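Example record

The entry below shows one chain as it appears in the dataset: sequence first, then structure tokens.
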Amino acid sequence: MNTIAVGGRDPRDGRPYSYIETIGGGQGGRPMGPGDDGIQCNMTNTMNTPIEALEITYPLRVERYELREGSFGAGKNRGGDGLIRAIRAVGGEARVSLQCERRRFAPYGLHGGADGKRGRNAILHNDGTVEEVPGKASLTLAPDEIVIVETPGGGGWGAP
């Protein structure tokens, strides 16, 4: 699970806003084939918010949304790649809460498969510095700072 919540006052009209989303990751490899890339494999019935809808509704800009290539664990059937989602707080301060798993321990492979890459969270500050953030965190973004969530890849199944 990789959950992000961003909220604050919209600088466009002063109204409060709250954006919450679960971000998919890599599924583990299986006996019958490779794991899927960038999906919700343990949390279902959640929405993959379209970038356009998010940017129109909230004072947020999606700077990156892509597969995290190479995050899978190798195996006879490799795991799936995770995702990278980077979101900028446009024009105003924003509070961010992160509830993300597999930051300390990698998604393990099975039956000789390799582990997938651990997830990673960071803040890109306006001065260009990058601050690593733990999996469970509450923080404040200054106007125009970026929160980056890199979800873990799935572990492989079977010896490569």
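Notes for this example: The helical segments are 51-57. DSSP finds one helix and nine strands in the chain.
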